[in-house]
Amino acid sequence: MKLAVIGAGAVGRSVAELAADYGHTVTAFADSASAVTDADGIDVTGTLTSKDEQGRVGTADPETAIASEYDVLVEATPTTLGDAEPGFGHVETALKRDRHVVLANKGPVAERYADVRALERESDGTVLFEATVGGAMPVLSTIDDFDPEHISATRGVLNGTANFILSRMAAEGLGYEHVLAEAQDLGVAEADPTFDVEGTDAALKCVIVANVLAQGEREYTLEDAEVDGISSIPGSALELAQEDGRTVRLIGEVANDEVRVGPRLVPETAALAVSGTRNIVQLETDHAGRLNISGRGAGGPETASAVLADVGRLPER
């Protein structure tokens, strides 16, 4: 497949770097200010070197990448809320050109799911978005394999930054602010960690799962989620939990037509008590019981592997 990769952050870069290993060719690559295109395949190494040294992937306008020749548009720009732009506009353009779309950007399917599906129905292109939920973990493809009608609920730990902070607070008896600073020094937390620690990132992932499970019967957005974060949790709460053989994790849940994210007490030996940046999702199935899917929920190569797995599922053009 010929890929146009939009977004030159960790995920977009990794998709470009790994595409050849999966038998694909990157024919266009764009960041927010520039683009490079070549119908025979761009020089990925040279393009990334240009980005590192000059701050730009190329000399062309970014829109030339979206207008170029490709089979699959890989949308890996940062997630935005509300109108989900510019990601949604990129999806719309590709589908109107009857191209496939693979999303790493959560915005279009968390905030405008019905619009995306409507565009897909009018297009010869297909939209896939495994990478938007749980990085490398095959959450959405597993739901699809078992059929959403046979999944009654999902729950899990879906943000590595929040989980790292809670794990360190519990293990070392440290306060939130101290561990947050440590996480930022290690690159586990962003300079502005609000998206992660206030539960927004986990909630968006749960909203996407809710939309998949609803199968078009209703649309969920972030406004439909009940969300609480971890920034106000004192270290003493984790100490008290440990005395009772429990710990605290930021749990996202989709059940009974509701989406909820917040800190929850879980047994220290439970599957949901994953540590560090590890993620886990539990699927409650009608006929196979509870399934646990655990792994790396973020990271450039990890998330890129989910993107490229989606590319492999698409019909040839």
Please provide a brief summary of the model.
The protein is an alpha/beta fold. It folds into two domains: 2-135 and 300-313, 3-Layer(aba) Sandwich (Rossmann fold), CATH 3.40.50; 140-296, Dihydrodipicolinate Reductase, domain 2, CATH 3.30.360.10.
Query: Overall mean pLDDT score?
Result: 95
SSE class: alpha/beta
Low-confidence stretches: none
In CATH, what is the homologous superfamily of the largest domain?
Dihydrodipicolinate Reductase, domain 2
Number of domains: 2
* Gap from first CA to last CA: 8 Å
Question: In percent, how helical is the residue content?
Answer: 25-40%
How much of the residues is beta strand, in percent? 15-25%
Question: Architecture of the largest domain in CATH?
Answer: 2-Layer Sandwich
Shape: globular
Count of separate DSSP helical elements: 13
Rg over alpha carbons: 20 Å
Strand order of the largest sheet: 3-2-1-4-5-6
Description:
The chain is an alpha/beta fold and 317 residues long. It has 2 domains: 2-135 and 300-313, 3-Layer(aba) Sandwich (Rossmann fold), CATH 3.40.50.720; 140-296, Dihydrodipicolinate Reductase, domain 2, CATH 3.30.360. It is 39% helix and 22% strand. It has 13 helices and 12 strands. It has a 6-stranded mixed sheet with strand order 3-2-1-4-5-6, with helices on both faces. A 6-stranded mixed sheet has the order 8-10-9-7-11-12. It is globular. The protein starts with a strand and ends with a helix.
